[in-house]
Design brief:
Blueprint (H helix, E strand, L loop, with lengths): L3 H7 L8 E2 L12 E5 L6 E6 L2 E6 L4 E3 L9 E3 L25 E4 L7 E6 L2 E6 L5 E3 L4 E3 L10 H5 L21 E3 L6 E6 L2 E6 L5 E3 L4 E3 L5 H7 L1
Antiparallel strand pairs: 1-4, 2-3, 3-4, 5-6, 7-8, 8-9, 10-11, 12-13, 13-14, 15-16
GO cellular component, one term: extracellular region
Keywords: Chitin-binding, Disulfide bond, Glycoprotein, Repeat, Signal
GO molecular function: chitin binding
Length: about 230
């Protein structure tokens, strides 16, 4: 942290863009880039760049937590614990964006897309296949965990059987039976409490329908030709 005397002096600077603090004591380190908490304001921080000290203000919708990487060392406001520091959050609404920087649902209903705002411009982003946007976590999630407004079967495109044949390969994965998706070598479905979750094999592997496990393509002739 910065020395107490420096914090008091810097705290007198006005809010705004980068403010050079020419009359303030020097940076604790003279090389590289370092950032430091403002003692009172959660939307401001001190930046040292090769010994040059400036007072920085986070963009609208962002706050400083020492580890943010959304924009200029700041993070989304809902991801920051300010403690006793005060946060100044005034919405600057533009079409699709409450703040200039933020993540928002595409609409009031279940969606496999979400809106990411940067500098006040909304950009549509897509969840990975089989996932839907969760406004509580500001991320994509399993649709069976969002059943208040999501239909997992509609998102995944698969309905879990009411009963599992005890002699089937699927039954070997009890209590979470697995199923292949016809024509899809890259995914399988796992049923959790009767609801489907789409699982990607990933890492260049493909699904072996005979074992319902993901294998190297050369071990699965039916998918190996498709991968070439």
């Amino acid at each position: 942290m910065l020395p107490h005397a420096l914090c008091i002096l810097l705290g007198l600077a006005h809010y705004g863009l980068s403010v050079p603090l020419l009359d303030a004591p020097g940076c604790p380190e003279q090389y590289g880039v370092q950032t430091y908490h403002h003692p009172e304001a959660c939307d401001q921080f001190f930046l040292c760049t090769n010994g040059t000290l400036t007072l920085e203000t986070c963009e609208n919708g962002l706050l400083y937590d020492g580890k943010g990487a959304v924009h200029n060392h700041c993070n989304y406001h809902w991801a920051v614990e300010c403690g006793p520091r005060k946060a100044v959050l005034v919405p600057l609404s533009s079409p699709g964006c409450e703040f200039r920087y933020g993540i928002y649902p595409e609409g009031p209903h279940c969606s496999t897309n979400y809106v990411k705002c940067a500098d006040g411009v909304p950009y549509i982003n897509h969840c990975d296949p089989g996932l839907a946007y969760d406004d509580k976590t500001h991320s994509c999630n399993w649709p069976d965990l969002l059943r208040d407004y999501c239909n997992p079967e509609a998102v995944v495109g698969f309905k879990c059987p009411d009963k599992v044949d005890p002699n089937s390969i699927s039954a070997k994965f009890h209590p979470y039976p697995r199923y292949a998706i016809p024509g899809d070598c890259d995914h399988l479905v796992t049923c959790v409490d009767g609801f489907p979750r789409l699982i990607a094999c990933g890492e260049g592997k493909v699904l072996d329908e005979n074992t319902l496990t993901c294998e190297e393509p050369e071990h699965v002739p039916s998918c190996h030709l498709k991968k070439k």
